[in-house]
Design goal:
GO cellular component, one term: extracellular matrix
Keywords: Hydrolase, Metal-binding, Metalloprotease, Protease, Signal, Zinc
GO molecular function: metalloendopeptidase activity; zinc ion binding
CATH class: Alpha Beta
Structural class: alpha/beta
Strand content: 15-25%
CATH topology: Collagenase (Catalytic Domain)
Bound molecules: zinc ion
Protein name: Matrixin family metalloprotease
EC number: 3.4.24.-
Oligomer: single chain
Number of domains: 1
Order of helices and strands: EHEHEEEEEEHHH
Strand order of the largest sheet: 1-7-8-4-2-3
Length: 226
Amino acid sequence: MRRYFLLLLTLITVGLITQSASADDNNSSLPTNYFNQDAEDASSNDFSFNDSDQTPNNQKLAIPQNTPTPLEGIRWRKRTILIYMRTTDPQLKAAFRSAVKKWNQVKVIKIKWTKNEDKANIIATDSDLSAHTSNNGVGYQTAQLGETKTEYNPDTHELQKATSILDPYQLDYTNPNFRSEVAQHELGHALGLAHAPEYEHSVMVPRNIRNGITKQDRKSIRLLYQ
Ligand SMILES: [Zn+2]
């Protein structure tokens, strides 16, 4: 089991890429980084939330400075965030469900499960991350337990989409509590948290995960979303 304390969790922040076929349209002053969401919403969505009408979507989101747990500088515009369970692995589903409950206990954001993948802000999925395994330069191999990719609008700091991935093979022989903590870490990225230094008491310490969401993590999420 000690082996797992050496494993590395990596955030992959994928910058929003908007070089689509309609790149010429991007010259308008309105943010055009919503890809196809508008089309999807218009065609299929009789029950859409209307809260997007209340705030202009091109308004820059404030990101606080000096939070106890570092931030990526991005966040969701709404505090109700929809998540879709794409993995069918029972252990990973349990881990994601547990992690969602833990983050919701902060009481500032509400992560809600949706059965509509198209509407989801966060995708909870699995992948064999061993292809990413690399030598970290200090003499031993590291492997990822999880990974989160985020897409965001760099002008407004607004998260558009996050995909949190857990590796079913790396996590197979760990215990449910540890798997939940890894899922809490990945969802932390999906909410806008960055890695915390090793000496801090945070779920966002990238290696050597030894705890779930801490007081400083809760405080940071409060500062980010309140
Ligand atoms: Zn990480």
